[in-house]
Amino acid sequence: MQMVLNLKLSAEFRSLQVSVIVALTVSQDLALRSPDKVWLITQWQNGNTKFKSSPERYMSHRIRQEGRALRNETNNQTKWDQEDNSTRLAERMDEVERWKEVLENTLGDINTEIDALSKSKEEAERALEAKNLNLDVVIENLTLREGRQDIDLVTDQVHEQLLKEVEVIDGSKKALQQKISEAFEQLCLLMEARQQLIFDITNKKEALNIDEVALSLNNNSPNISFKPDPLRIPPGTTTKQQWDMFSRYNKDRADAEMKASTSLREAISATIKHVSLNKNLIPSLFRT
């Protein structure tokens, strides 16, 4: 029992020795790390003042101020540029809308003129069919009169008038056929001008849809990403003057074709009226 007690005391003594040795080592290490020189408060203040007034610190401060000013200037310029571009885009949309309305009105007018000319053409075709019937009647009369025998086969006034009637009807048919052909050609020109108007109107509607989406974009719009070479000019791009001339040409061409169609309808009406005066004279001839 005494031996066990002695062993415990011996172990505690050795642990105390180790602790003392460690404490002495740490104290020596701290002593070695102590600064060689201790600064006075005035020296410390002078050092800070010197650091605050150093060229590097001044340059850093100036760069930060210039960067802040540049950032503010860029933000303001970007904001005004966006407002300016939005105003220009809105004005451009108004111009496209005005041209679209003009072309749509012209399209309505040319559709009306196509219907009117088609009716005039049909009227001339009915008049031509009527003249064919008149010609058949005159030819039938001439054929019957050729059946006269001997001395009765006389070239009398009736025969001469029948031949003249054939000549008149044939001339009326040629005049009507000429107007029908002209009406057909004019209808083709009107339809071609109408197709060009439809093409131009369709393109302007598509341009308005694209510009409307562009006008609605802002810094918070989704799906916005950087596009490479944003200032490039796509192939096939036209100038503002070319764009205006193209739409103006389409309108002027449609107006010119409608004017020509109106004159042709008047000529068709006059021709129909003229040939209608050349009525069948056969009954009156046989009564004389």
From TrEMBL:
Keywords: Cell projection, Cilium, Coiled coil, Cytoplasm, Flagellum. One of its GO terms (cellular component) is nucleus. It holds the Pfam family Tektin. Residues 100-141 form a coiled coil. It comes from the Eukaryota. Its main location: cytoplasm. Belongs to the tektin family. This is Tektin. It comes from Scyliorhinus torazame.
